[in-house]
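Q: What would this chain look like folded?
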Amino acid sequence: MIIFVFYICIFVQMCHILNMNESQVQEIADFLKALGEFNRLSLVYELCQCQLPKNAMCLCDCCSVDASVVSRHLKILKQEGIVTIEKKGRERSYSLNREYVANRLRILADKIDNNSQ
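A: My prediction, written as C-alpha cells:
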C-alpha cells in the first residue's frame, strides 16, 4: 500500500509539471489504476494477442483465477473503456479497445516527451 501511495504522489507531481488540469489528471489516474493491477494487466495482455473477442471463461487461463474474479476485473476494464463487450444472448465476449488504449498512452507519452525538451 505504501508503494502505491508513493507512485500516486509521483504521478500527481508529474501531472503538475506536465500542466494537466484536474479532470485530465483524474482521467489518466483512473486509466492507469485500471491497468495497474496484475490480473487486469494480464487480461489486457491476453486480449492484445487476440484477433477475435473472447469470453470470460477463455480468459481465466491467463490469470489463473476463477471466472467470477475475471468478470470483476473485466467490469473495471470496461468502465474505463479499455475493453469493449459484444453480447450474443447470454454470452459476453470481450475485446481490447486498441485505439482508445493506444491513444490514452500516446497522449501521456507525448506530454512527457514534449515537456522534457
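The longest helix spans residues 98-115.
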